[in-house]
């Protein structure tokens, strides 16, 4: 199965925290290709697509951050109105809940990163829909 790993960091929502996290990754020689932040009042989760997940994970843990690796599906869909809706409806019909998602258009390709409880179930639900699943290596080349 093609799956993509993201590096997730649980961090306090305070001034300079992003700089502290990214310094750890920079000092470890880890290149950030994409990121997202979801915060509450006091804490949040920063997720990164990086070129060296294991190295970044170790560096963050060694620096005292709470980090984990998260498996997501990177899916290429048509860049047209309703394409994401079709994917969402298919997942809903198959009882797959999307926990987190983000997307981007790069090099004329619409790419969704979706996080679900069971990536294999989601992949099976979407098979036959004409979608292309990206590997970790392909995601790094966006």
Brief characterization of the structure:
With 142 residues, the chain is α+β, with helices and mostly antiparallel strands. It has helices at residues 17-27, 53-62, 83-93, 119-126, 136-140; strands spanning 4-12, 32-39, 43-50, 66-77, 98-106, 109-116, 132-134.
What can you see in these coordinates?
- The protein is an alpha+beta fold and 142 residues long.
- The protein has two domains: 4-71, VC0802-like, CATH 3.30.2130; 72-140, ACT domain (Alpha-Beta Plaits, 2-Layer Sandwich), CATH 3.30.70.260.
- 32% of the residues lie in helices and 40% in strands.
- The chain has five helices and seven strands.
- The chain has helices spanning 17-27, 53-62, 83-93, 119-126, 136-140, and strands at 4-12, 32-39, 43-50, 66-77, 98-106, 109-116, 132-134.
- Strands 1, 2, 3, 4, 5, 6 and 7 form a seven-stranded antiparallel β-sheet that branches.
- A hairpin with a 2-residue loop joins strand 5 (98-106) and strand 6 (109-116).
- The longest helix is centred in the N-terminal third of the chain and has 11 residues, at 17-27.
- It is globular and about 45 Å long.
- The relative contact order is 0.22.
């Amino acid at each position: 199965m093609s799956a993509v790993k993201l590096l997730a960091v649980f961090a306090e929502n305070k001034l300079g925290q992003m700089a502290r996290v990214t310094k750890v990754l920079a000092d470890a020689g880890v290149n950030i290709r994409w990121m997202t932040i979801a915060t509450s009042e006091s804490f949040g989760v920063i997720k990164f697509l990086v070129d060296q997940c294991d190295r970044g994970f170790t560096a963050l843990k060694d620096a005292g951050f709470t980090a984990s690796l998260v498996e997501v599906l990177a899916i290429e869909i048509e860049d047209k109105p309703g394409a994401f809706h079709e994917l969402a409806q298919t997942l809903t019909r198959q009882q797959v809940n999307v926990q987190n998602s983000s997307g981007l258009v790069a090099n004329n390709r619409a790419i969704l990163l979706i996080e679900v409880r069971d990536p294999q179930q989601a992949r099976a639900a979407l098979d036959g829909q004409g979608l292309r699943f990206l590997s970790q290596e392909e995601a790094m080349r966006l």
